[in-house]
Structure formats: structure tokens, C-alpha cells
Write a structure and sequence with these properties.
Blueprint (H helix, E strand, L loop, with lengths): L1 H40 L1 H4 L3 E3 L5 E4 L74 H16 L26 E2 L1 H14 L4 H10 L1 E2 L10 E3 H13 L1
Antiparallel strand pairs: 1-2, 3-5, 4-5
Length: 238
């Protein structure tokens, strides 16, 4: 009986010592080492890829898209459609992904794709104006009309064939922070007109914030909308 109690006590003691050692190693030392290495070698990424404005204030993350909309007439009206603030470059659509009442510039309650097939609402394989309301075809056609109307100015007319796919479709997550250079360039004339800037100035801004393919061959060229709008704000307030 005494041997049994002694063995049990030794086993419990060994288990507690193992628990203590593993807790210190895995719960304290390892996280501290990983955090220290990340801060030393990848400080910007480790802190969330924060973007700061010209005053040093954090305005968001380079990894998560933001919306640039006008304030609602009635902030409590959940049914009121958001209208884009056209003095800013606009991001990709993010339909149906919810809203965040704490920070209305973000839509982070839900993240995901529409899960609609490419021919959802198509008639004989073609998206037409007869597409049923709520289908992907109807959404894309409505978005395309809005892009043409919003970005056409007195001196620049957007053509339907010039509207890139990312201007009318959301990404898989709905939180894509980037747009294609083609979509950014399509918005240049409207942004220049709304901010009373020279078109060449805005074109240069887009060019300066265009990132090429990763390692020269992965992905596509892209423009981070938050970085671009942060630079635009600095330009307009300087």
C-alpha cells in the first residue's frame, strides 16, 4: 500500500515538473524568442503592416481594405446605401460582407466570397440587363454602370471595355487592399478633378504606388488603395 502511494506521488510530481518546464519553454521562452526575432527582423510586418499619415497617425493596415464613403444622412438607418466619396480612389467592391458599427470604414464582421458561379444570372451564357436582381450578373452590370458614371468627367469619358474585372467584382475575402493599375488609372481623371489637381500629378502618384509582381514573376502588379489615398491626402493638404 505504501509503495503504491509513493509511486503515485512520484508520478504526480514528475507530471507537475514536466508541466512547469513545458509551460516555461512553450508558454514563455518560445513566444518571447519568436516575438523578439520578428520585431528585430520584420518590425513593420510584426506590428500589422501599419500605414501612417503625414502626421504619424496610424490610419490602417496595408493588409486590409477600407471603404471611402460619404457619411450617411441617417447613421442609424441600416438600409441606407453607402455612397462613395469620389474625391478618393475607390477599392474593389465588397458586397454582402456586413458592416462594423464601431469603425464604419471597415467591413470586418464577415469575410468571404459571394460563392456565386461566374454565370449566375446569365442568359445563354451571357450577362444581360435582363439578369434577375440579386444575381452576380446583375451586380456586375450595375457596378460597371456606376464605375463608368462615377469616373467620367467633362474631359474624359470611360468606355465600357476599359473597366477592369476588379472594378466590378469583390475578392475572395472581400477585404482585398489592392486594385489593379488599370483600375487606379481609370480613376485618375475623376480624382484630379475632385481635388483640383493636375492629371499628371495624380498619374505620377499612381505610378509611385504601383507594386510589381513579387520576385518579378508571382502575382500581378497592384496598387494599395490605402497607401495611395494617404499619399493623396498629404498632397492635397500640403
Amino acid at each position: 500500500m505504501n509503495n503504491s502511494v509513493g509511486n503515485t506521488a512520484r508520478l504526480i510530481g514528475a507530471g507537475l515538473r514536466a508541466l512547469l518546464v513545458l509551460t516555461v519553454i512553450c508558454g514563455v521562452l518560445y513566444p518571447l524568442a519568436v516575438t523578439g526575432i520578428a520585431q528585430a527582423l520584420f518590425n513593420d510586418k510584426a506590428d500589422g503592416s501599419e500605414i501612417k499619415d503625414h502626421s504619424g497617425r496610424v490610419v490602417g493596415s496595408a493588409l486590409i481594405g477600407q471603404s471611402y464613403n460619404l457619411p450617411k444622412h441617417d447613421p442609424n438607418d441600416a438600409e441606407e446605401a453607402a455612397e462613395p466619396d469620389l474625391k478618393w480612389f475607390q477599392p474593389r467592391p465588397s458586397n454582402g460582407l456586413g458592416s462594423n458599427s464601431v469603425n464604419t470604414r471597415y467591413s470586418l464582421i464577415l469575410s468571404g466570397a459571394t460563392n456565386r458561379s461566374a454565370d449566375n444570372g446569365a442568359i445563354d451564357g451571357t450577362c444581360t440587363k435582363d439578369a434577375a436582381e440579386g444575381t452576380l450578373c446583375a451586380q456586375v452590370l450595375a457596378a460597371k454602370e456606376a464605375v463608368i458614371a462615377d469616373n467620367s468627367t467633362a474631359s474624359y469619358q470611360v468606355k465600357a471595355e476599359d473597366v477592369p474585372a476588379d472594378a466590378v467584382t469583390s475578392s475572395g475575402s472581400g477585404l482585398d487592399p489592392d486594385i489593379s493599375p488599370a483600375y487606379a488609372e481609370l480613376q485618375v481623371h475623376r480624382v484630379a478633378e475632385r481635388n483640383k489637381l493636375d492629371v499628371k500629378q495624380v498619374e505620377r502618384l499612381v505610378s509611385d504606388h504601383t507594386t510589381g509582381r513579387t520576385l518579378g514573376f508571382m502575382g500581378e502588379p497592384r496598387v494599395n488603395v490605402l497607401e495611395l489615398n494617404t499619399a493623396l491626402k498629404a498632397l492635397t493638404t500640403s
